Amino acid sequence: MEISRKVLERCPLFAQISAAQAWQLLDELNAWTRTYACGEALVLAGYENHSIGIVLDGTIEAYKTEPDGGQLMMARMGPGGVFGDVICGSRSRKSPVTVVAATPVQTLWVPYARVLSGGGSPAHILFLQNLIALLADKYFSLDRRLELLMARTLREKILRYLTAEAGPDSVCVTPFTRAQLAAYLGCDRSALCRELSRMQRDGLLEVRGRTFRLLRN
Question: May I ask which residue range the UniProt record assigns to the signal sequence (predicted)?
């Protein structure tokens, strides 16, 4: 199976695994690829999922539907992103979120049962170790997301998000549009735009498109 070397380098599941080893391992695991049109669902909330998904090309978004019918964005991933891994390891294997192709997408699917029952080659052992490390990282990422959503005000949510994502220069370049950022923060788009304007007026931020510079906390 020929998968782009660049995608393998981006994907945490293949850390310390050479491209040649990865291609051989994927053949052994009976992995397969599939393409999706923009807007097509890859995983549906409430349904079981038995394979780990890896984004090869394009962008996916995961949403959780709220009781009032609104949608809360849980994640957005590009090439190298891994999804479905947490679901596969659960007892019910029913997805709490719906994963949708935000653009035309190509994905790689790896059967979870094969990952657990395969041989003990060095590449396979590394793959399992990387999977465990990724699950741990996602736990702490979810904890940080919960802290963000628990913030009492929209301003606090924005500051927490930008502070966590900004580099040493206090600059954050978000992958989100305003509507997507609002969905990620769990707020209305117009409310987000109003608060960003207030924060610029108060000297907290400089905003240019998707680039945010924190001026002071």
Answer: none
